[in-house]
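Researcher: I'm preparing a figure for a lab meeting and need a structural model of a single chain. I don't have an experimental structure, so a prediction will have to do for now. The sequence is pasted below. Please return the structure as tokens so I can convert it later.
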Amino acid sequence: MDLGTVLRGQLFSNTSMNETLESVLARLLASAAEARAEYPIVEEKMLVLATNIDAFFLLAMSVNIFLMQCGFAFLECGAVRSKNTTNILIKNMLDAFVAGIAYWATGYSFSFGAGNKFIGYEYFFSALNGLVPDFSHWFFHFVFAATSVTIVSGAMAERCGFSAYLTYSFVITGFVYPVVSHWAWAPSGWLAIGTGEVSYKDFAGSGVVHLLGGGCAFVGAAILGARKGRFVNGKVMTIKGHSVPLAALGGFILFFGFFAFNGGSQASMSQDGDGAVVAIAMVNTVIAGSFAAVTGLVFNRVTGGCWSLLITINCALTGMVSICAGCDALWPWAAAVTGAVAGLTFICWSNLVAKILKVDDPLDAVAVHAGGGLWGVVAVPLFARHYGIVYNWDRLAFLQLGWNVVGALAILAWSAATSVLLFGSLRLAGLLRVSEEFETKGLDVPKHGEPAYPAEAYAHGWPDEATRGGWPDEATRGRGGGAIFAPTEALSGSGSFPEQMTRNDDDIFVTSYDATEEREPYEHFGMRPKTDGASRAIPSGPVRM
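Model: Understood. Here is the structure written out token by token.
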């Protein structure tokens, strides 16, 4: 017998050693039993943590999407004339507040309440008793509803009655949009159920939000009619907005918001793969927007236009709208193709609406949202990496394309039918459009009593001599091309500026601003030739500040 066998026999024959091993084993078994007993508690805590992470993710994305209302406000106020700035700003602000009431009262119920394939009917006024199972889900879809109605306000800017605006804002966010979101996103909706083989694919709302909003905007603008001077003898006349910088600021805010709009539609961050989906959605959003912006800019230039900032903004927005539907399912190269086509889509739709259909849309909202949304719904079944026609040339891929087209047509039909009833009723009631006098003079003063740019705010208290070279200081006189803008009449609140503004050694510049006179933008600042009635013609040109 070898030495190892002898030692092992002596070791395990020792009674005290056996008792020690049994004690250790017993403690291990007891610890394992305790761990098994505590496992459900740990599992429950992990589930709570995952639920809280998802709720926080949704709420954070929702707040960023809510900021898009600010982007719409700046974009729209920059695109309208200064006399309607306050009016468009309050409408954009109330888009959120009216939507808050309407979506709480009926909208969420129609969208996600238990119901049939067409509409839900649970959770009415749900915040009264806390029946909604997930308020983060409620808040996320509320900001989507507010976005849908903001699209309409831009297309109907500068001539829509305020009471009519309040009415259509409530109806669209409380009924029209929720029905479509139920079709596509509620488990019981007919588009979501699909054919049994395929279902409607619209990840972040190219169709549900943007196509619906664009459809309502087109019908509303058509029934409302064009602004005075937009179409003259069949010719499209340009009515310029008053601030390109404000429009650009609004565009930047909207670009920022689209990352949350698309990435947040994953609605979860606690499950395996969630982060990857959110990341690809945001990457595709910037790629589609970038290709749309550059494509539209270059196409406009090579076809005889300029390097237009406003066209660049609108094309970028169209690209981001078009990628909403498939931002989770496309590879970046497909997002680039989708965006490039979207840039051309915007230009085509803009010309179609204004030049052929003769519908006045000050913001090109129809081209951005209806045009981009329709293309986005079609692009998903073409380019989706798992089931798109490009990858799978089979019956199922074409069936997916067909079902998405059915969804798009259903959304257009629903938005058109409900909008005809809504805006037609408002027009018959005499509420839809403001009077010709209000439209000509502007809506800020008669409707709100708060002009965005009050004349007296641009005046000062210095005597007239200070504006006519009466001060010895050369800098004050404006020698060398400078000028001092001192409209003393504005201090009296008369609304008019003095005819002669300033004189220096180089030129004479004049301005004659009448707050009640209809003019083209910048015409107030001496861009028309005038004569002083005494000596010689006064050259036109902008006042040099």
